């Protein structure tokens, strides 16, 4: 490996270890790569992965090998004499052989094994995953060290990995600069209360010394927005995609102590439509990328976890999203005969039941609701100065099955508006969130 | 924007707001895009950014506009009647006009302005950045809200953004799955002591309740390695690129409380050379990408901050890296007549002065040092079982001007070795780091 031989000629004085011999060995392919070979020509390859199934017949031994690169496994066909006691379900193996056309309909290629080496054995009696068993998520939860070998969780993480890459590429292609906003910070973007505080685990200070490691109290970030706003003042278009933290003491599917958030700030934007366009493009491009890069994984979710969503998703990608002002939304909610737990009222937040009704009303397609009441939104959103029904230039994207997926606003850029609003906030001693 | 008109035909019942009129406006180009136009044809464009210089002559007004998309600014040529009191150095503007060939040698294109709108004014008397002034970093440090408009810091963040993208793409192209390893964790990869602990800022528990938010003490991650190792057992090749934290109470250029680290784990790797190959490829590919994507930014660093590095960097990219065992390295250090503060001795860590000498000795090219003493390295590195000079299969990459840039090892995969080593660690009550 790595040209050590020619190196020695140049830097003979540097090294006196014997040079590693260059071994000509078959090309190692990932299972995904092997499965993508359209016209196999019996090329000599090597595949490394875990045994997903083993079926021994009189004349032939069938294995399925999965290495996590795809949901699909590669079928290995071998002479039964290659079977050993250690070759079991769950063991890790290296199979060398010839990649050939498969006579079976279910797969295009298979690997005719010439050698099977068990790299790591597996005691099937104690191994948490069982052959041909559909393990429920509650069961898998107990085994963090092997649960990602299950189809559902490995598909989930492959999709997440693709979505992460698609998000980075979306912004990069449009000229955004990526910023790592600070994780430990003294700034609290959303208003105090539900933040984590950070100090060294072992930390002994004398009474006369400053009690804080950073000299001031330091917290885990709840949003990189304020840092990004500063950066937008130098780079015009910036984004971040990092962990954020909330110390909410509630256990629900919607409250996580640690989660990842995409945030972007754009300078010179004066219309809410331009922000909606970025959100819509981001949603569509990332979704399309995941659908095209992980077709098998997505199909698994459509089959097992979210039946009936496929057509809806396609529809969302095809049509432009719907837009509606908050005031219209309230009018629609008031006109319906549906019973809500929370009565819709101008000036009140939209509840999940309201969002759900609005999405239904619009044909189960993503919906932008814009121009929210001034008193519901944080101080940094731009005042629309629109009289009695006083609103700010904010927008939320509601998505069927989820509710609010993202939100944004035109930032208040008039210093006098900001100052008088901040003063009002301080006077009422209520930081609006 | 965004096809609201055709939408209304489909979903007439949804919306009663007047449709925004579609305004035909000139295309907004980033400065970088405008500068890249090879053959300008007088196309009507708009540029938004900050005024970097303003020079008013009798018949012509020259501006330089920068929007952070590139180090270079775009020259704007205008009729002096377009000058207003608010059009100053530091103000943000929107310039509309025709992109034409520039008669000057220094730039290929310039913008013949037809309209200049000041978006945000700037009081030059109080603005921290001054026209035609080279601000030292110590000065810029005081103004976090505008310092990134300086050439050096904006170049630095553009390079960081490109490097981030290149790192993601490098691993993605080679079939690695990206994993977001947990930031808040109870696992301490590198040994206890210098970690940050996390609890909610407002946290009152009754004495009979568990004192910890997560029921156990929780820390900020010092490394995602152990989580990645688990993932490598399902996906074969995984990587993460996230924030890590150390509560080192020392102020130096090498100790940060928060920094970003690239980590990768590969299953089925049995030779250190394969790990070195990944490190070398990563270094070279990311460096090449930054050099090709940010030529002006890199040139600024070569000119102002690191003169004489350009040729050295090119040499590093062209040649294969040098490899040398730790034992050889100690022999070389012992044979030299150079005086070291720390006497080189087998079994002792390489100090900065030793690394520097070795790099010089090898011709200022990146150097892999491998097979380190067993007692210097953590428990998870593979025992080479090589007798008196007992080593593990670990490798560090030393780079001129930096020192250790990355490290890795073959992981110990034999349960009995791990168990006996862990037992030894517990007995001596010293977790080796």
Automatic annotation (TrEMBL), chains A, B:
Read off the Gene3D superfamilies from this record. Answer: Bira Bifunctional Protein, Domain 2 (3.30.930.10), Nucleic acid-binding proteins (2.40.50.140)
Where in or outside the cell?
A: Mitochondrion
What GO terms describe the biological role, i.e. biological process, of this protein?
Answer: asparaginyl-tRNA aminoacylation
**GO molecular function, one example?**
asparagine-tRNA ligase activity
Which E.C. number(s) belong to this protein?
Answer: 6.1.1.22
Recorded catalytic reaction(s): these are: tRNA(Asn) + L-asparagine + ATP = L-asparaginyl-tRNA(Asn) + AMP + diphosphate + H(+)
According to its record, what are the GO cellular component terms? mitochondrion
Residues forming coiled coils: none
Q: Which residues form the Aminoacyl-transfer RNA synthetases class-II family profile domain?
A: 157-333
Output the superkingdom of the source species. Answer: Eukaryota
Q: Which Pfam families match?
A: tRNA-synt_2 (PF00152), tRNA_anti-codon (PF01336)
Q: Which keywords does the record carry?
A: Aminoacyl-tRNA synthetase, ATP-binding, Ligase, Mitochondrion, Nucleotide-binding, Protein biosynthesis, Transit peptide
What protein family is recorded? Belongs to the class-II aminoacyl-tRNA synthetase family.
User: NCBIfam families in the record, alphabetically?
Assistant: asnS, PRK03932.1
Q: What is this protein called?
A: asparagine--tRNA ligase
Species the sequence originates in: Salvator merianae (Argentine black and white tegu)
